[in-house]
From TrEMBL:
Entry-linked SUPFAM superfamilies: lambda repressor-like DNA-binding domains
Name this protein carries in UniProt: Helix-turn-helix domain-containing protein
UniProt cross-references to Pfam families, sorted A to Z: HTH_31, MLTR_LBD
Positions of the UniProt region annotated as Disordered: 15-42
Superkingdom, taxonomy of origin: Bacteria
Organism of provenance: Streptomyces odorifer
One Gene Ontology term of the molecular function aspect: DNA binding
HTH cro/C1-type domain location: 33-81
Length: 281
């Protein structure tokens, strides 16, 4: 681990970011060039003290998940992300479908940062939620908290009954077909040894419903749109789901909206008051 290079690189990347780049207000008395340390720490999901020690050449060696979080928080490109891993003493993530697909490009992160008043999230091609706005966490629950195969909504859909509480029961069959088709598409893109193959093998062993749908070999099942989502306090919301695809990383930005002035639009406006929805409700 090269503490001097790591500290210098973090400082320069932080100072190169402006508050507007990450959806933060500049404020009238800002004197710091670029972002403040506490802002960079918040974007990376860590304490200000931990992040500050890294910039001061006295922090511990960051773990790979911590470095991945810093790379997202500082809106690093893939080349910059790889450099960050190397100077922190780790191998560059290069395994197909592993940490590389978790990295959100700076452009997509900038768009997400401007959607704080809208339910929006970035999802990998195996249905793992990589980042959410606070409004998305209020609508859908914090879906970034899962680890292992449970990170994938497709896996949770077929193995955890609570995952289905998000949707009305009559919509479940089409969702099941859509999730299975999406996993097959990811598997065909990534090839043998990928994360999609691992999830497929687990689900074939653990879910008869998935095994039956997989054997049907359906391709390009249309997604459910508009989406009907169940909320424990607001009831069923019928929302449009706009999709922006990042082909470089095979990730999608999902943005949930309702017609202005509609009953569902009024329900969305209540989400900030209700706060993060408990997962599995």
């Amino acid at each position: 681990m090269d503490r001097a290079q790591l500290a210098d690189f973090l400082r320069t990347r932080r100072e190169a970011l402006q508050p507007e780049d990450v959806g933060m207000p500049r404020g009238p008395r800002r004197r710091t060039r670029g972002l403040r340390r506490e802002e960079a720490a918040a974007l990376s999901g860590m304490s200000t003290d931990y992040y500050s020690r890294l910039e001061q050449r006295r922090g511990p060696q960051p773990s790979e998940p911590m470095l991945a979080a810093i790379a997202r928080g500082l809106r690093l490109s893939l080349a910059e992300r790889d450099h960050l891993f190397r100077i922190a003493g780790h191998n560059t993530p290069s395994r197909p479908g592993d940490l590389r697909s978790d990295h959100i490009t700076p452009g997509l992160m900038r768009i997400l940062g401007r959607l704080d008043d809208t339910p929006a999230q970035v999802v990998s091609d195996v249905a793992e939620t990589l980042a959410q706005t606070p409004m998305a966490a209020a609508l859908l629950g914090d879906q970034t908290q899962f680890t292992g195969p449970e990170r994938s909504l497709t896996y949770r859909w077929f193995t955890e009954p609570a995952a289905r509480l998000l949707y009305p029961q009559e919509d479940h069959p089409l969702h099941s077909r859509y999730f299975t088709s999406g996993l097959r598409a990811a598997y065909s893109r990534q090839g043998a040894g990928c994360r999609a193959e691992e999830l497929r093998d687990l689900l074939l062993d653990r879910s008869e419903e998935f095994a039956s749908l997989w054997s049907a070999h359906e391709i390009d099942v249309p997604r459910v749109d508009p989406k009907r989502l169940r909320h424990p306090e607001l009831g069923v919301l019928t929302l449009q789901c706009q999709v922006l695809l990042d082909p470089e990383q095979n990730q999608t930005l999902l943005v949930y909206t309702a017609a202005p002035g509609s009953a569902d639009d009024e329900k969305l406006r209540l989400l900030p008051v209700l706060g993060t929805r408990p997962v599995g409700t």
